[in-house]
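USER: I would love a firmer grasp of how sequence relates to backbone shape in proteins. This is the protein in question:
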Amino acid sequence: MVFAFLAIVGAKAQTVVYDWNFSDANVWNPAFGGYTAGVTTTVAGLSFTPGSSATNFGATNSNSKTVDGVDYTIRMQLNGGGYSGSADGQTTPSVNMPTQRYLSFAVDGNVTIDIVGISGNGSNTRYIFLTDGTNLLGTYTFDGATATKETVSYTGGATTLYLFGNQSCNIYEIIVTSGDNTGISSVNADKPIKSMEYFDLFGKKVMDANQKNAVLIKKTTYTDGTVSSDKIITKSY
């Protein structure tokens, strides 16, 4: 007789603090014209600040891409730069505190921020900047030909981080991963769970988590919008 069990591998699986996948129609409107000018709106922990006059910032619409084995069907559009005078060719921003068309979110400490995106112009390379409002922490580079996943890390204490472009870029997913490497998130310990999903190491969803001799990623989504992940292994006897 064969018995299968699930076990957490070690104690170093990183925790996904946020996973904003804009193809998730349970959270994001797949046909949305943009956030109201002059008003900051927060969805699942991600804040959208259009500025005083932008009307199409954060628009979402159908656009299919596959990146690292993950299929995306919806993109979110910045539809412009994050500061006055922003333009193609600027590899660093003129300010580190954006004034328009920016995203922001709170973190408790060290994190890695992955962005799946592409330039909003088919011919021009464009950039998304990560700052803490005072310092430029890193730059994401996206060309207009191929959507890619780019990574920047933040090291430091609790703060608010900002994302904005030199011009319009299209974003398919933003993943914020905790860098504490504990594998267990005490913050999530007592949170109500919305759903649990399993994926293989190529990012494809697995319907049967009880399969034999497999390494899987368990994604737990909580009702407050935060997400955690654990690497698990199934064994058989």
User: Anything to note?
Assistant: The chain has a mean pLDDT of 85. The chain has two domains: 4-14+183-236, 18-178. DSSP finds no helices and 17 strands in the chain.
